[in-house]
Amino acid sequence: MYLSFFVIICVFFLIVVKSTQATIYKSPAASTVCEEGACLATNSSNMLYSIILPTYNERDNLPIITQLIHDTFADTKLNYEIVVVDDNSPDLTLEVAQSLQSIFGKDHIKIVSRAAKLGLGSAYSAGLKASSGKRIILMDADLSHHPKFIPDMIAVMETRKVDIVSGTRYRKGGGVAGWDTYRKLTSCGANFLAKFLLATGGASDLTGSFRLYERSALEAILPRIRQKGYAFQMEIVVRAHKSGMKIGEVPITFVDRIYGESKLGANEIVMYLKGLLQLFFTT
User: Are 208 and 232 within 8 A, CB to CB?
Assistant: First the structure.
């Protein structure tokens, strides 16, 4: 029943995307490409970027994503720090983070250790408080978000003067890898429902969590977010649009996790639908 429901929604979603392709794909915010960091504005070179990585049982993924982030920022000659927010992972992710800190240095790796699994929103808040960067990058630690897209996101923020840049799977050049049909249709349907019911300013990927923020924008929005799970990411876009903030997008390829287990389940889907209805009636 649910699968059929999402199939129908997805067909409508694809029709909408197809009908608006000409407009969407001509947007500079969706097509800016930065090769070898050449298109980054000069004032980015002295700016500190804070990458917040919430972790729970990510001991296998954390060393890889840390190295990829380091390489990306070293290649573009930009300053960075990684803030690992660990929620008492049973697999001892914290010990891995501490080892990485000894390798990369405390100026590049900061650690926030929490006593229990307290939720994504509070993890972002804790990471934000511990961070020092003027710009904040939120991304997953499970390798689903590749840091190679970060220079493009920075370029869009610089050239378009936006407050938020969101990585999107649903514009030309973006996509997913490693998902089965059910997962693709679920994500597609969730985004269609949100775009249909909420004022999002034309944002194409409302459940994605790979985003670059001006620090002032995130500090203004985060305390106002009440939803949890995937609806949390959606509410950020809705609140930002309602506040008059500008949002840019960069096509990304989302890759399903290799190590560990996906945290998407029936409970997360129900939470998303409840959150969607709450936002529909309250925003």
Answer: no
Work out whether the CA dihedral 53, 146, 27, 31 comes out positive or negative.
Answer: positive
* Short-list 47, 71, 51, 33, CA closest to 210: 51
Write out the DSSP string of 120-187: HHHHHHHHHHH---SEEEE--SSSSS-GGGHHHHHHHHHHH--SEEEEESSSTT-EEES--HHHHHHH
Cα→Cα distances 152→31, 34, 48, Å: 9, 5, 16
Q: Give yes or no for a contact between 47 and 134, defined as CB atoms under 8 angstroms apart.
A: yes
Q: In whole angstroms, what is the distance from residue 100 CA to residue 103 CA?
A: 5
Q: What is the DSSP letter of 42?
A: G
On whether the CB atoms of residues 112 and 98 are closer than 8 A, the answer is no
Q: What is the pTM of this model?
A: 0.83
Q: pLDDT tens across 190-212, in order?
A: 888 888 899 888 899 998 999 99
